[in-house]
Automatic annotation (TrEMBL):
Domain called G-protein coupled receptors family 1 profile: residue spans: 53-335
Protein's UniProt keywords contain Transmembrane helix: yes
Lineage, broadest ranks: Eukaryota, Metazoa, Spiralia, Lophotrochozoa, Mollusca
Record Pfam families: 7TM_GPCR_Srw
Record's protein name: Uncharacterized protein LOC101859130
Organism of origin: Aplysia californica
Length: 356
């Protein structure tokens, strides 16, 4: 992966393509080469599967209809994850071929040049997915923990407005870095060939510094804290509702509606809470891995792309990259298990003539 990128961006983008040659640290060079090939061999199937799964998600949610704020939010998240993985796969394939081949490949166009340019578009949509996930968690948390105050607050129109605002804000935060570099055709007089070259403006270092502070620190860590808080509140509410239902069911078995009335959450509400909690939990898990890695990097300066433990750094970055791809790919299992309309629509689309 590009060692010029910070560790968080590398984990998100998965663009590391060069294995350090010197055998330093806890893992030797040959082992690093072997494990790197394995990791890259895993990344492409996961990214491709994620593209397929998120395409299915968008089709199913579009078929269900945009009449529910939760479905609209999940629809937006699926599109964002789809675009993120599509950009990722476009530069992951040539990088993987180079790594697995074990020898230099004469590309008509250097994949590393394209990687360094395209990666920021992938990061843009990854960060948008973070913001959408955070909004979903906040909206559902407020609706179930403060139902009287917020039950009618997160309407369909407001959801569209919030998602639009989040998209504009995310784009505004990333435009400076994207605009500070571009691809230009340049001719190499020695080889008499013309290739695309990445050209960065003089403001690029300052823009990247701003990007690292806001998009790689302030935004993700703020979203992480919010998601952890919401996840804790949702888990407590879900546990309380389940205990209340069980208690009422055992004490008043003749009244089927008594448990529902006391729990304050309908069966549909509970299923939605479970789905949102799992989506938030997957994001929290991946973000905590990145946070732990950043803390270790700060505590052990040699744990870096150019330090003594460079091989370990590269491999742990590769592992976290896989979890990042999985986070953007496996939501379909959550939707299928906890969303009845999603499950019915999915079966209708792919199993025509069969009833769920």
């Amino acid at each position: 992966m590009d060692t010029a990128l910070d560790n968080t961006t590398a984990a998100v983008a998965g663009v590391e393509a060069r294995v350090q040659v010197q055998a330093l640290g806890l893992i030797d060079y040959n082992t690093t080469i072997l494990l790197t090939k394995v990791l890259y061999g895993i990344c492409i199937p996961i990214a491709f599967s994620g593209i397929v799964m998120n395409t299915v998600n968008t089709l199913v949610f579009a078929r269900i209809g945009m009449r529910d704020s939760v479905n609209v939010s999940f629809f937006a998240l699926s599109i964002s994850d789809l675009v993120y993985l599509s950009f990722t796969l476009s530069y992951l394939i040539p990088s993987t071929l180079t790594i697995i081949s074990g020898r230099p490949i004469k590309w008509l166009q250097s994949p590393y040049t394209l990687n360094s340019y395209i990666v920021w578009y992938a990061v843009l949509f990854y960060d948008l997915s973070i913001l959408i996930t955070t909004y979903i968690a906040v909206a559902r948390c407020c609706c179930v923990t403060l139902a009287l105050q917020f039950r009618s607050f997160f309407t369909l129109s407001r959801t569209y407005t919030v998602l639009g605002v989040l998209s504009v804000v995310c784009l505004a935060l990333h435009i400076p870095l994207i605009a500070s570099q571009n691809l230009q055709w340049k001719t190499d007089k020695k080889t008499n060939t013309t290739k695309l070259t990445l050209v960065r403006s003089g403001a690029y270092p300052d823009v990247q510094y701003f990007h690292d502070i806001t998009n790689r620190n302030v935004v993700p860590y703020t979203c992480l804290a919010i998601n952890i808080t919401c996840l804790a509140a949702l888990t407590f509410t879900l546990k309380s509702a389940t205990q209340t239902r069980n208690m009422m069911a055992s004490s008043a078995p003749t009244d089927d509606n008594s448990g529902k009335k006391q729990s304050k959450l309908s069966t549909k509400d509970i299923q939605v809470v479970k789905a949102v909690s799992l989506v938030a939990a997957m994001f929290v898990f991946c973000s905590l891995l990145t946070t732990i890695k950043a803390l270790v990097r700060r505590a052990i300066p040699e744990y870096d792309s150019r330090g003594q433990y460079r091989n370990l750094f590269q491999l742990t970055t590769g592992v976290m990259t896989i979890f990042t791809y999985l986070n953007a790919s496996v939501n379909i299992t959550v939707y299928y298990h906890f969303n009845t309309k999603y499950r019915q629509s999915l079966i209708e689309i792919f199993c025509k003539g069969k009833k769920p």
